[in-house]
Amino acid sequence: MRVRRGPLSVLECGEAGSPTLVLLHGIGSSGDAFRGQFAGLADRWRILAPDALGYGLSEDLKSAPGIDGYADSVAGLLDEVGVESAVVLGVSWGGLVATRFALRHPARLRALVLADTSRGSGFDPELVKMMIARVREYSADPEAFVHDRTPLLVADGTPAEVVARVASIMTRACRMPGYGYAASSIAETDHLPDLGQITVPTLVIVGEHDRVCPPSDSRVLVDGILGSEYAEVPATGHLPNQESPEEFNQIVGDWLDKLPD
After folding, report:
1. What is the pTM of this model?
2. Per-residue pLDDT tens digits for 184-243
3. DSSP helix/strand/coil, 123
4. How many CB atoms lie within 10 A of CB 205?
5. How many structural domains comprise the chain?
6. Beta strands 202-207 and 229-233: pairing type?
7. Cα–Cα distance, 190 to 166 (Å, whole number)
8. In the chain, what's the furthest Cα-to-Cα distance?
9. Domain extent at residue 122
10. Where are the alpha helices (DSSP H) in 44-191?
11. What is the distance between the alpha carbons of residues 47 and 181, in angstroms, rounded to a whole number?
12. Tell me, what CATH number does 77's domain have?
């Protein structure tokens, strides 16, 4: 079911009395990317999968919120649904937002799942330039950008229907200036110095063949977050939750089941 929660359009499923799991999508996506998680996790969790500000059916932004603003919008979502704390799972850019949420709102975070993400790009001028160039490419020809970008997000040999679904979500969800604001937030962020402040249970999960945020990026997060656990989803790329939802759900669901009450 899709509902309006303040400025956000949110896909929701599961029972209202169940513990809450918030799912945050990547820079080229929307809450629709998590439909594969509903069947595997909604029997135990109340799932909230928002379209980020400036994406999909959520409200547009008048100015760049920065990574802090995106993280605060998650806190606002919890306020809207009357939930004090939740598990937050972020994929790619959503993982950066989830990490900043952990740093800004630690009392509202029960546990953290970081999927196919990184410390951010702010530590490397070349990565910053790459993000700026990506925005220019998208602005110049969104259709060509989606066509060229989508194959890089999945592992070689991914079924054509999965690739088409990823491209369709990107086409429907992305627009300017939202995409540009999200890219800027990545370019401005480096979480490495602050990872040690995260004390909640944390799972870092990554596709075995991720070419965008490779397993080495995830290892940096594991090294920085005390007590965090690491898992790989075999034979997947940057979007294992879409490429292999059953295996992704199994790994994440088993880990969530072990969380203390």
Report:
1. 0.97
2. 999 999 999 999 999 999 999 999 999 999 999 999 999 999 999 999 999 999 999 999
3. coil
4. 24
5. 1
6. parallel
7. 27
8. 49
9. 2-257
10. 66-81, 93-104, 125-140, 142-153, 160-173, 178-187
11. 26
12. 3.40.50.1820
